[in-house]
């Protein structure tokens, strides 16, 4: 953090993550040296915000016939930005219009299985996975092309 002059009685911490608990300490320094840190402040939680981090490494996994298995790395708690965190899994056969969207309400989920008896094996799908919480919808991952199971 920036150095604050000795006559200041407060300072503002900036660029903190939403919905994270923080403690603060003060350390005094002068030309003689640096003192011990103060006792930590009480724990302070920042306000909720719409998530800004989509899941990483969206890919396909093996599954049963007529299944499309979509997998991703879950978003860590520090980037969920609030309560009610979950995923929006969007997919469509490659080259078609209109996304099918399914909600996955578990914040630690890492896959979604779509089963459709009419989907032939190895059908390519465009897939993206987004995030949401109680404050709103966040971004989607880049679109990936994955195939339905054999």
Automatic annotation (TrEMBL):
Its main location: membrane. One of its GO terms (molecular function) is cell-cell adhesion mediator activity. Keywords: Cell adhesion, Cell membrane, Disulfide bond, Glycoprotein, GPI-anchor, Lipoprotein, Membrane, Signal. It is found in: Cell membrane. Transmembrane segments: none annotated. Residues 1-49, 54-150 form the Fibronectin type-III domain. The keyword Acyltransferase does not apply. It is a lipid-anchor; GPI-anchor. Belongs to the immunoglobulin superfamily. Contactin family. This is CNTN5 protein. The gene is Cntn5_1.
């Amino acid at each position: 953090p920036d150095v604050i002059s000795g006559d200041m009685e407060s300072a503002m911490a900036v660029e903190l993550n939403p919905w994270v608990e923080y403690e603060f300490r003060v350390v005094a320094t002068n030309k003689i040296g640096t003192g011990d840190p103060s006792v930590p402040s009480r724990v302070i939680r920042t306000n909720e915000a719409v998530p800004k981090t989509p899941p990483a490494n969206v890919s396909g996994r093996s599954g049963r016939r007529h299944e499309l298995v979509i997998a991703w790395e879950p978003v860590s708690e520090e980037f969920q930005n609030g309560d009610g965190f979950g995923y929006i899994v969007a997919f469509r056969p490659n080259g078609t219009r209109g996304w099918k969207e399914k909600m996955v309400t578990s914040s630690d989920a890492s896959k979604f299985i779509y089963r459709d008896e009419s989907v032939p094996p190895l059908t390519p799908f465009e897939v993206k996975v987004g995030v949401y919480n109680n404050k709103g919808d966040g971004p989607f991952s880049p679109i990936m092309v994955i195939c339905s199971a054999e």
